[in-house]
Design brief:
single chain, 216 residues, alpha/beta, 16% strand
Length: 216
């Protein structure tokens, strides 16, 4: 079961290979509940090595590691699952490769129709966004916080993504986000800075998510 809280997403510009493990370890020490390895710039062999190291780290913290857009890499390193965009590998193919117990999340942008299709297809969580200006995906279509509450009826964990920081996450948690997926608002700077930001997100969920205490 996915626990509500901070969903840390790596980025090869903010978390390059030489600081990747230290950065993610700091996020985990601060209370991250889910980690996604997202790297659009490294070679296949580099990504394999990094994903293996990250998976070992996440297992030590008992936190699932998901791989962005690459079910085959997830299978090779034994990751907990994948996150898929609308133009990536199909949910059916990912499920067939990774098995029934894998965690598969789907990008739904701002569309309840896409969310319904993902839910019907067996997704494990639904991701909506962007909610604020994002440097990671500046061209992503905007989403309204209303979609978070509306998507609750689908009965799956709801993730908010896009420009989220410690200063604007509270309203999304209150609107219904079970997870806030954060890249630039978490990573960058010294490990102590990353851990401190993660702890702030953790406290926000402790105060404002109704099921947070039950997942501790």
């Amino acid at each position: 079961m996915l626990r509500p809280g901070l969903y840390a997403i790596t980025d090869n510009r903010l978390t390059p290979a030489d600081i990747l493990i230290a950065s993610v370890e700091a996020a985990l020490a601060g209370g991250a509940r889910l980690v996604q390895y997202r790297d659009k710039g490294s070679t296949a062999s580099e990504r394999l090595a990094q994903a293996r190291n990250l998976n070992s780290l996440c297992q030590a913290f008992d936190v699932p590691l998901l791989i962005n857009d690459d079910p085959e890499l997830a299978a090779r390193v034994g990751a907990a699952g994948v996150h898929l965009g609308q133009d990536d590998c199909s949910l059916v193919d990912a499920r067939r490769l990774l098995g029934e117990h894998a965690i598969i999340g789907i990008t739904c942008h701002h569309s309840l129709n896409l969310a319904q299709t993902a839910a019907d297809g067996g997704a494990d969580y639904l991701a909506f966004g962007r909610f604020y200006d994002s440097t990671t995906k500046p061209g992503a279509p905007p989403a309204s916080p209303d979609v978070l509450a509306e998507a609750k009826g689908l009965g799956l964990p709801i993730t908010a993504i896009g420009g989220i920081t410690v200063n604007n996450a509270e309203s999304l948690i209150r609107a219904g986000a079970d997870l806030v997926a954060v890249v630039g608002g978490l990573f960058g700077g010294q490990p102590s800075d990353i851990e401190a930001r993660a702890k702030v997100f953790h406290r926000l969920f402790a105060r404002h998510h109704p099921l947070f205490s039950l997942s501790e």
